[in-house]
């Protein structure tokens, strides 16, 4: 079996959407042009676990154009765009993903993807890397290394490395500036809002919105919501971030207090049990709860389902009624609302994240002998290169240091 | 024939969406509770021409609960939510609307709605009022008056009144503070952005967005876009509004110059030919063009279609390629992008607009002998009442003037 | 005595400041050029009661250039810029104002100004108009009419008119769009923040700031503070404005609750007793309280002084310690903090307000026979003219309606 | 000579201002309480080169309370608050600083400060450290290490370390999160705007403001200006920062183009020749130019003075007229406008910066044997401690990780 998707007949629509995405992805386009000629991935087998969207589609096509053999599974049960999966499958990429797949199918797809005996893994949440370390250790010998896309995955992999369990080098693509300062910050903001609107069509102006987490994701989201007229409350566990949120003009509260006043709750922490069953009990009737963090553990969905009666209002919008008659509304089953209920981050910002993926694979191959079995960050030159291509594509010129200025910055004799 | 809709089987989903909308419409809920008891519209026949959405659905059900006989048609070929139409039809409201109806069907539906021989018209764009004045003058004698929802319709009706052509009093619901300061300002902002995102999934941060018009709609939209990281350029024909946009931090340019630098263009002027074929010719390859003004005349769609090859990328997103190879992308055929590609304004804000409609109908009936055949605004007390119910539903307390303060404000003896 | 000022030797510095202000006042410059030639005020005697600042100075010089005989007193005990007063006096304008004048001197100066037996009054708060109606009725016969600058004054004059007490027409300059949408909104915002910073150097980011009033002044101020990172709470007595503040993302609370959580309090209501002694008792130790409304009655300064021990920390910053040891800090004795502690509204925005004053005087003279003894607003053409000159001076071009567009806007036949 | 200041009689006012600042500096207050008791700096001689303001005054008093012998000079010719210098001198701290001192006096004061034969240096711009390395090498043997406050100084010291010239360890206080994410970002924003307003009283809304540099300082400043209604243009030399500015909604231009359209220019780069004589020649008549970077080399002041005629309009505002009649206005002679024309960063934010200084001195003493002769950053625990004290003083509670959450974050087994 070369693929396991919803319906190959969706490929025509998928092709159109891929072409549409490409217009907004000039960095990947520039790399594709170069790699098609130079074939830097000739013969390399890549297994990817990614949200199968039009943007990852453009990346997967690029990797194939560069000479690689590519297989991919979806990194979340609800995030697959079935038309894209169909178009990629038709193009000869082995895709194992469909929207709404069960957890069981999710793991079967993971294994199907690994069947190509990969040299390189591209991961989003570290499930693929975890699988080869725990269930498919026979694959380890042919693996040169891996790429990880998310904050959540990087935290997980650093824990593995700390315990000496990581068996190959991993590039933390997330930690590139051109990734986390853009994708996490601006991408999460827009796509999360988009997901909430498609699920609910709720008015954001005038609403009290609780954003759990004020890292790169949460800070971008909080500002975007404020820009749309929401009154934003931030919860945090880190004192410096809590203080930063305060200085940006947001109210900071512990979740136990925020729970009582919020109209809408969004988790973006990378942690678990951020909204507990106790919190939900103290919420107002009609509160809307959703998650835009990587895993569906941020909200205590299990407890909610156990203690309430569920009615599906429409796609991704479920009413949970408590015995006392109060309802709260859960979006997308507590999974990534931006991918389940909208289309994930816009192409323009994924362009940079995936340029880091593509250049990261090359970096891994070129430096495989030097890289230790731990988590690595791409060198600053990669950020610089990506940002320069991006700015050029947007027709934005900026200044260059003169030789005198460069000298001044590296000297220490000029003072007052 | 009691209704003309897409599919009555959609009524179950429509019912759920109506119930969902009601949660966000506490002012209408309060009125419904009162009117169901007092039956103030007993025996009154109301013909409405509105976007058939979950929000107007709640209004139409309220009018029926208040004792009225209600018929309604859609006020735009692309704005009907077919499941809502089905649910309303099932509830005994005569609905004549379906998404994608032709212009011919549009006008047939108008006439079907008028078949109830209405006493009151509720209009959105003044097409219904225009029709009874030009094609169905026999209905005039039974009409007490009408309500008009939009800026565009009010402009049109004032022109009729100026020429002495208006045959009954019209309440400019649009001109209530609790309508245009909220619906037009916050509602248009969010729903327009929502429509653009659903059609394109484009990244707004970093984009240059040209907003044509800086009235209540345009100013709200410009600020919301800025809050999402867009660089906003405003075009205007009114000097005071152009200056206000400048002082709010926006670049103001004539459209001829803005056309050359914009990535996305949105018209919200109420005028026609705001984006001409000449403007489109000077746009960048890949520019996205859409309209959130009432009628589809703001963009020169006819000229565009004549001079370009059209490919539909996906719903509401069409690529128009010029002979020279450049493409521009038109959303929702130049019709209201917020209604065609999203769900229109959120319920919370339409709650207030439609409370003005409901209270306006009562005001019209109570004052029918006093009201001249011209355009009227509801008294300030209606605004005050609606705002108070809304604030209370949001659990927001505010201050009350003390007798001493009231006296101070009406005295003139206290100075420095 | 031709003037009563602090020190004529300050005139050189005053002249420099006036010249600096003129650079930012292109509308007045354009009028001065025209009026110097046409002498439209030849022989007219004008008595003005204004904050004597570099901006009013430019207006007074313009009136003189236009042929008028001009006398002016300060409209607030703390707002006079003594160097400006000196320069104007040296130029032959009769100025009666000095910073820190007592209330007794304030009223003496008012009378000195009226000694020229004016034909036109220019007022700021309506004290001058009030005086001629109550103490100097003999002057009424030579007065053609008056101009009023502030919201507060207009409220006072409308009360007079309602009671049939107003003896001549008054132009509510405040109600021109090019005045209240700019001066009140943007001017108050910046100058109030400026005044607070000069008095306290307090960090605004991270502070909870309570803005009392969400009219043109308060809404501008609330947004500017949010832009600087403050968490803004709004108090209001008007339901529509309270709702607007909510939709703009601000918390709305009654003052009794806001008093407990605010770090900084600013009143801009035009009313009295907005912050009472009871409110001050519930404030946090260290709270900062100030006023940017016209009169010093918004804060219960009398009660505060009675119940606390006062220490002046530095100019415009006084610590009031309560018997229980708690302190609150009052700025500028509760008088207009923007004028007492900073320089009032910036020149660029006063340019438009004072262009309304100058054009208003002409309008009054030209229409004196037609104008009833009530409060009038300048015609929309004046706004349009001022905005156009201003935009041109800023080198900002904007669109013009085509004949087809004009026709469309005045027709009613084009529908869907 | 124990001090060299303007006038010891200013000490009473200085004392009041110091007391006022202390209210906003709860972290330093907490440290002072602890250190007064524990005397951790007993017998340590500290030489500081700092802007002598009320905030550094509170730090210097704390160091003395902790047992140190303290001498200090001003780190900029225009930044000294003479009343503070007087109060500190009266308290027994050797102060060598006065506002308006010449460059010669500046360096004499540096040497006077070093006369105490310091064990620890506290520097702001690295002039003190530079002096002991180049002119007073005999002092090196008694120096344990130094603290550096600014981005500029850290760049300079890293260059020294790179060349192997640094003779003792330096703590880059600037690089603490609780310093550069707050002081540089929020502090610079507010104090720079404050300095511009006090110098010019110019309207910021509607103005085109060019911010050179989008690091921690420039990004905070750009957002604050946008919040006040300015249209902000950013110039950068770093591609990632240029892209971030774009995504935040700002126009990015090279200075050669920005020079032609800006109304106000502010440099915050840490580099030299950011605004050259060529740029000034292409500016509009009336452009305002100022600097908020550490040294007065960002603007080509020398060339400007050579090619123009200078008139001082008022304090810190000079008109420079070119031979062709055009003028540009330079603020504060191109020196730090926030310190020369206002009072520097507000106390609340300096509280955290100076807590890093105080805790940094302790860290240096405790770790003197371990620290290499290079540039060091304080451990994350110091940031955490400072942020926690600050939040507590603001009465802001936030969440704590549960044991389960801590375990989750350090585990890698939980996936999808």
Polypeptide structure, described:
The structure is a homotetramer of 416-residue chains. With 416 residues, chain A is an alpha/beta fold. Helix content of chain A is 46%, strand content 16%. The first copy, chain A, has helices spanning 11-23, 26-38, 54-65, 82-90, 103-114, 127-134, 151-162, 177-200, 216-227, 239-247, 255-261, 277-282, 301-307, 337-340, 347-366, 380-393, 403-410, and strands at 45-50, 69-74, 94-96, 120-123, 145-148, 170-172, 208-212, 231-235, 251-252, 264-267, 287-291, 309-314, 317-321, 327-331, 375-376. Chains in contact: A-B, A-C, A-D, B-C, B-D, C-D. Chains A and D meet through α7, α8, α10, α16 and α17 of A and α7, α8, α10, α16 and α17 of D.
Determine the most extensive contact between two protein chains. B-C, 70 and 70 residues
Instruction: Return Rg of chain A in Å.
Output: 22 Å
Strand content of chain A: 15-25%
Share of helical residues of chain A? 40-55%
**Widest β-sheet, arrangement of strands of chain A:** 9-8-7-10-11-14-13-12
The averaged pLDDT of chain A comes out at 96
Poorly predicted ranges of chain A (pLDDT <50, ≥5 residues)? none
Which structural category do the helix and sheet elements of chain A fall into?
alpha/beta
Number of helices of chain A: 17
Q: Say what oligomer this is.
A: homotetramer
């Amino acid at each position: 079996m070369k693929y396991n998707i919803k319906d190959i007949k969706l490929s025509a629509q998928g092709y159109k959407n891929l072409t549409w995405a490409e217009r907004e992805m000039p960095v990947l386009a520039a790399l594709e042009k170069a790699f098609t000629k130079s074939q830097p991935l000739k013969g390399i087998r890549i297994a990817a676990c990614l949200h199968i969207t039009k943007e990852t589609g453009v990346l997967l096509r690029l990797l194939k154009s560069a000479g690689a053999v590519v297989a991919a599974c979806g990194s979340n049960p609800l995030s697959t765009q079935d038309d894209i999966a169909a178009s990629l499958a038709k193009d000869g990429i082995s895709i194992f993903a469909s929207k709404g797949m069960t957890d069981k199918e999710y793991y079967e797809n993971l294994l199907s993807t690994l069947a190509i005996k990969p040299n390189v893994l591209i991961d989003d949440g570290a499930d693929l890397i975890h699988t080869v370390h725990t269930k498919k250790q026979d694959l380890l010998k042919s693996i040169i290394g891996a790429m990880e896309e998310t904050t959540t995955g990087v935290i997980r992999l650093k824990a593995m490395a700390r315990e000496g369990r990581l068996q190959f080098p991993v590039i933390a693509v997330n930690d590139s500036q051109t990734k986390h300062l853009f994708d996490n910050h601006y991408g999460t903001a827009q796509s999360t809002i988009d997901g909430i609107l498609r699920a609910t069509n709720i008015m954001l102006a005038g609403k009290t919105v609780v954003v759990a987490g004020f890292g790169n994701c949460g800070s971008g989201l909080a500002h975007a919501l404020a820009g749309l007229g929401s009154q934003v409350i931030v919860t945090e566990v880190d004192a410096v971030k809590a203080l930063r949120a305060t200085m940006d003009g947001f109210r900071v509260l512990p979740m136990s207090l925020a729970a009582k006043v919020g109209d809408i709750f969004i988790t973006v922490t990378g942690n678990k049990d951020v909204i507990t069953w106790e919190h939900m009990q103290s919420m107002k009737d009609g509160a809307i709860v959703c998650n835009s963090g990587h895993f569906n553990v941020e909200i205590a969905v299990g407890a909610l389902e156990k203690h309430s009666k569920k009615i599906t209002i429409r796609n991704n919008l479920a009413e949970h009624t408590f015995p006392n008659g109060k309802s709260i509304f859960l979006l997308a089953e507590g999974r990534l609302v931006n991918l389940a209920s909208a289309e994930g981050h816009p192409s323009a910002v994924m362009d940079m994240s995936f340029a880091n993926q593509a250049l990261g694979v090359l970096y891994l191959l070129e430096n495989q002998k030097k890289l230790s079995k731990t988590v690595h960050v791409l060198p600053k030159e990669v950020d610089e290169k990506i940002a320069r291509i991006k700015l050029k594509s947007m027709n934005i010129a900026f200044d260059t240091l003169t030789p005198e200025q460069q000298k001044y910055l590296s000297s220490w004799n000029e003072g007052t």
